[in-house]
């Protein structure tokens, strides 16, 4: 290990395919209450008709007056008396919830047998935060959580969010939102598209508005050095500005009061992890840079991203790293179904 400045750090050059499980037909749900709640209301309730542990269902919900949908994967170990963690996973631009389910492998028993995974569907396969998109997906997320916490036994201290590309950009909006940053424990975007409406575009200094509702927001970012969609060094795109990823990560480290010094470790032959913070805060902000992959979800197994022409499998898997990161970070002082207070785990 060695301690490097982020400026010098970022000058580096850089089994079987997953088949999504069959999705049950959409089941209607009542409009979610706009009020947030950490209530254990969903514990000890029977599952909605047609749903069972180990299965994926499509759920309808009304949000901001519009009919929206999301996929909900119940883990094999789900039990209505045992609070389960939740992971929100957002698809990329022009993709959909089923694509993301097959891509991230968060529902694979190899990696996850305990967490509920939610795959929201973007309107027109886009997300808030993209240039020209006016949809309130922050509210959509809040409404999903209200509904899920009301109907299922959820560990409200362990709700986390990840996403690919534009879905990763939405993760950043959630982390910066005063309400959602206080409901979601940790964030892990992959190849995030962090658009900022700022011209002229200065990738190394552009600032993005961010008002988290708490201190010490855990944030893990993955990016490839050969990403030609959301460039690692940032730049103008779609008439807005993408920050350089080193600058973006440095802003999160500064916001969490970690400074810009970091500890570096090798993840694989092509990837390096940069962790910010020391002591109990070690790794609170973390960035994984792979010098050879493009705009892909890093996986050593074939997936929908790395089987495209000009792409290939990675030398490491992002999914278990994301799950490990989520397992280390929980919200403080949140009541679970048992009435116990959720405590931060590091």
UniProtKB/TrEMBL annotation:
Keywords, ordered alphabetically: Carbohydrate metabolism, Hydrolase, Polysaccharide degradation, Secreted, Signal, Xylan degradation
Transmembrane regions: none
CC per GO annotation: extracellular region
EC number per UniProt: 3.1.1.73
One Pfam short name: Esterase
GO BP term, pick one: xylan catabolic process
SUPFAM superfamilies: alpha/beta-Hydrolases (SSF53474)
GO molecular function: feruloyl esterase activity
Catalytic activity from the UniProt record: feruloyl-polysaccharide + H2O = ferulate + polysaccharide
Biased composition (Low complexity): 23-41
Residues annotated as signal peptide: 1-15
Region span, Disordered: 23-58
Subcellular location: Secreted
Highest taxon of source: Eukaryota
PANTHER family for this protein: FERULOYL ESTERASE C-RELATED, PTHR38050
Entry protein name: feruloyl esterase
Provenance organism: Metarhizium rileyi (strain RCEF 4871) (Nomuraea rileyi)
